[in-house]
Design brief:
By secondary structure, the protein is mainly α. The chain has 5 helices and no strands. 68% of the residues lie in helices and 0% in strands. The model has no long low-confidence stretch (mean pLDDT 91).
Amino acid sequence: MTDSQPKPGLIPWPPLIYVIAIAASVVLGLFFPLPWIGDLLGDLMFAAGWVALFFVAALWFTAIRVMLRAKTTFNPNAVPDHLVTSGPFSITRNPMYLANTLLLIGVAFITGIAWFLLFAFIAAFATQKLAIEKEEKVLAAKFGKKYRDYAKRVRRWI
């Protein structure tokens, strides 16, 4: 990469964002619980939460497997060696960030702590602004037309 090309950030925002979201959800859930619709749909919400957690595990496992096969980095601040477009990356450009967001949603449905649901969307927005948009610039600079074609074909989230 030359000096004029975008560089990845210094702070690994995605893991920090989601850890903060989890911690804030737990603390706020303990001290300032919000009303939850679980009384009406408790069993359905509980089951949906476990389904979401199954998808979290599937997304993480398949994304990691595909990245290992491509021999590219997992570090959100490193410049990737290869553009990965197969497996879950053929459905979403950010399967691991999507999995993190689904994790918070699933936990909200299972525990009935509404803060997890609220922070899932806040964390997704923060991840997009602090990490994804910068990562996309780095990918476009490194892979050019190949990345731009991929970005046109595959959505950022879902």
